[in-house]
Amino acid sequence: MAIQALSLIIVGLIVIYFLRKEQVKHNDYFGKKRKYNKKELSILDHYKRNYHPIPNDKRFPNIRRDKFTLDDIALTATEMIYNNQIPANEEKENVKSGDLVKLLFTNKDGFVERMWVEVLERENHIFKGILRNAAVELEVLHESKMIYFHSNHIYDIDN
User: Fold this and answer.
1) pLDDT tens-digit series, residues 146-159
2) Which domain holds residue 23?
3) What are phi and psi of 70, to 5 degrees?
4) Which of 29, 125, 140, 142 sits at 20 to 30 Å (Cα–Cα) from 148?
5) Largest separation between any pair of C-alpha atoms in the chain
């Protein structure tokens, strides 16, 4: 009887742990504010100190003209903690022609789609690339579409 009670307690604690973990993910996904621990505050502070705004450039996509925009990952990293590690400035500095980078495309309704872009050219922090997969929801995006983007837009690198 004692073993069964102990087993039930252990199972209950495991269930509570995973429910709490899912609630944190849910709150992060839907942008609910939460308290950050010291390590997370340090990460946010690091990104704030290293953030450089994206210059205005008519080649970058915008909602009005292109029906989508690219997320400024570097700016978002100053406000929230990503579940995965985003590329450091040093990694983005090493991106070259032929590398694949993942960008986050957002439409006017706020729907976000992550897609791979092959880098064709680079001029300082501005890249020209070609979309290497088709969009699921964003109909204006198709494989082989030409995209201009800034290093702040890079969410992931596969080189």
Assistant:
1) 999 999 999 999 96
2) 1-34
3) -105, 140
4) 29
5) 72
**13-to-2, 3, 17, 20, 25 alpha-carbon distances in Å:** 17, 15, 6, 11, 19
Q: Name residue, tokens 């621990």.
A: 37
Q: Which tens digits make up the pLDDT trace of 92-142?
A: 999 999 999 999 999 999 999 999 999 999 999 999 999 999 888 888 899
Catalogue the long-range contacts made by 41-46 (C-beta closer than 8 Å, 24 or more residues apart): 43/81, 44/77, 44/78, 44/79, 44/80, 44/81
Q: What is the pLDDT of residue 36?
A: 85
Query: Cβ distance 142 to 135 under 8 Å?
Result: yes
Residues 111 and 62 in one domain: yes
User: Do 54 and 124 share a domain, yes or no?
Assistant: yes
pLDDT of residue 56: 93
